[in-house]
User: Fold this.
Amino acid sequence: MLFCVLSVVLIWGIYAVMVKWVRWEVEKENAIIAWAEFDSNILAGIDEIQENNGKLSISGWALRIDSEIKDIKVVLQDTAGKGQQVIETTAAENSNLKQYIRYLELEGNYSNGGFLAEVKENKLKKKNCYELFLYISYEEETANEDGSDKQAEKGKKIKTEQYLYDGEIYNYNPKVFVEPEFREGTMQQVVQEGKVCAYSPEGKAWVYLYEESLYWILDKTVEVNCKEPKKVYLHLYSTDIKRLPENRQIYLFDNLDFYFKDFQLLLEEESLYCAAKAELNVKYPVSYVRTGLYDHETGEKYWSLEFRLPTAQ
Assistant:
């Protein structure tokens, strides 16, 4: 009898340890990919998603300036907070990566950044929206205690600023996206023919690219969008720091902030929106854009957005 009791206790003990170990492994994996950060030296994107024999095939690319990428994982994170899928990738040639390297005028071998990933469709819920991240492992030169150099492997989860919904890729979350409505004029052309760079559902604000200019469209029903003196911050990152204005090189990005009213477009008085336009007339390749709206007097930030220019994709 005592033997039976001890056996049951032992079995339950082993089971508890195994469950704890499995849970720790899962938590460890999730912890690795639970956060995302901005790194102007890492550029990445998802190019295409195709359906084939019950699988989704995801192609894309990533590069890190002056570092060799060792491994890439695709992370599909449910925007409703219902978990995430982590997908291994295999190396593959990528024409968009080559085009991006030419656009940024990079030197060196970045050809190993193209990848292909596959996931079974039944692993995803078709009507759910997933934000696309990449977990990138790379080597970075660090110093030993004696001052000598060594290569250390690091990893970062990077936002692609892209979303997967119903088999399509978007530069915004399509589940919450609402297109601004213009009946005529230039702004109707911008919305219909331009490219959506980013959208803030909280701020009801859009950024479009049209004919080498950026357009900010603000919904006037949002109180902060009508406040003065409101200012747009516009930070342009480049892979060629030396081509930034000399006074901006120490900050690693160019600052083109402006008062909204100074670049504001004249719209019909009854319009629900106000809009501003800024030409992208710069002498360096733009790898990344950060923009948003804030109160210049108090410094209060109303909303912010990050994106790659569609022309550089």
Observations:
- The radius of gyration is 24 Å.
